[in-house]
Amino acid sequence: MKISTTKLNKELEKIANAVEKREEQFENRSEKWQEGEAGEAFQERTSELSQIEDDLQAAIEALEAWNEEN
Fold it and tell me: What are the two backbone dihedrals, phi and then psi, of residue 27, each rounded to the nearest 5 degrees?
């Protein structure tokens, strides 16, 4: 039985776009905001989302490898 990764790849793309958008939003803010509590919290959340992106990518790769073996 093969497991489709099509939907996972679509979700991965959405997450990657969200990370990119957040990074752009951060860069467009003032230096004062970036260095303040709001900026730090924003960056922390962006980092968490980026980690989710990395984890999902790894899971997709693992599923694709599993599909090849079975």
Answer: -65, -30
Q: How far apart are the C-alpha atoms of 2 and 15, rounded to whole Å?
A: 24
Domain chopping of the chain, boundaries: 6-69
Instruction: Using the structure block, give the residue that is written with the tokens 């004062």.
Output: 32
pLDDT, tens digit, 9 for 90 and up, residues 40-56: 999 999 999 999 999 99
Are 52 and 15 in contact by the 8 Å Cβ rule? The answer is yes
Identify residue 67 by its one-letter amino acid code.
N
Q: What is the pTM of this model?
A: 0.90
User: CA 39 to CA 26: how far, in whole Å?
Assistant: 7
